[in-house]
Amino acid sequence: MQHLSSFFEAAMLLCFAASWPFSILKALRTKVVAGKSPAFMIVIEIGYVSGILYKLTGKTDAVIWLYVLNLLIVGTDLALYYRYRGNAPAAPSAR
To answer: pLDDT tens for residues 8-43?
Structure first.
């Protein structure tokens, strides 16, 4: 049963990891981070650190690397937030 639990945990983490690159690419492309919440990203980071610590203090398996991957991805998005937070969104062009 532990193997099945790790499978579902890995699936959850992969789904989370799949969504962040879109946010990162948008920030890199537009240099605008309006609408992003650093507090939300920090809470997510705390959750991933907690998951890593759980794995280190319990039964460690390969899923720990998915926590590390997610931590790095969200950390990248958070760093981009602080890098571009002063940039305002472009005004719509008048036609």
So the answer is: 999 999 999 998 999 999 999 999 999 999 999 999
Helix, strand, coil percent values for the chain (each to nearest 5): 75, 0, 25
Residues 53-91: tens digit of each pLDDT: 999 998 889 999 999 999 999 999 999 999 999 988 776
Instruction: Give 67: exposed, middle or buried? Use CB within 10 Å, 0-12, 13-18, 19+.
Output: buried
Locate tokens 């280190």: which residue?
Answer: 56
SS3 string, 29-49, reads: HHCCCCCCCHHHHHHHHHHHH
Q: Return the structure tokens found at 89.
A: 């969104």
- CA nearest to 24, candidates 67, 66, 75: 75
Burial group, residue 8, by CB count within 10 angstroms (0-12, 13-18, 19+): exposed
